[in-house]
Amino acid sequence: VDALSDPAFLSGLVRVALFLVVQVPIMLGVALVIALLLDSGVLYAQRFIRLAVFLPYAVPGVVATLMWGYLYGPDFGPFAQVANALSLPRPPFLSSWMLGSIMNIVTWSFVGYNMIIMFAALRGIPSELYEAARMDGASELRIAWSVKIPAIRSAILLTLIFSVIGSFQLFNEPQLLRTLAPSVIDTAYTPNLYAYNLAFTNQNVNYSAAVAFLLALVIAVLSYVVQLSAQRKERRS
Question: Which domain holds residue 8?
Answer without folding.
Answer: 3-236
